[in-house]
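USER:
I would value a second opinion on how I read folds in token form. Give me a protein, with the fold worked out from its sequence. Write it directly below this note and I will take it from there.

ASSISTANT:
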Amino acid sequence: MSETLRFEAFSSMVEPEFWSGLAHHKLHSARLDTARTLVRGEFSGGRRHAVRGNSAEPTQRLAVPARLRVNQGAWEAAQGNTQQQAGAVGVNGYLHNTNTIEEFKKRDKGELLRDAGAEILEAIRSGRATQTPELLWPFLLLSFADLKKYHFYHWFAFPAVTADPPDMATEAPAPLSSF
């Protein structure tokens, strides 16, 4: 059996408080500057939860996917004040905030991904990734904040270096419970 090795895709969650922090950042720090800004998020792996029903309904098992979340603490954590949720891993990312919705729509997302991938590859080649493994999994957040209407637009990306040709699984997958 030879099948392309695949991984579960990350999902993202932006807590409402993050947008308040972005508005403050835009008004008081960045202003019209569109340079990327370091922010910090939290990654939590997927889990299964048992949800008990009433006496007539049996207990159900629900899956919660792997998720990256950003909240209002993304700004403080990027400056070293790290306080995170239990069971989560802090992850650095880059915010690319635009000044207009047109700029947001026209931004070359492929270029952002290629640039981030090149930085990951450079961290691997230079050996920095062995000293600071979190350089291997940055996230990108492209956004536009319409502060007059309090509307926020965003796009998350999780760049990665991939093998060419892709890695192949040589055995059938097995559930973790079998180990």
Notes: The radius of gyration is 19 Å. The helical segments are 16-30, 74-78, 101-106, 109-126, 128-131. The CA atoms of residues 13 and 64 lie 12 Å apart. Strands lie at 3-4, 11-14, 37-44, 47-51, 60-64, 67-70, 89-98, 139-146, 151-157, 168-169.
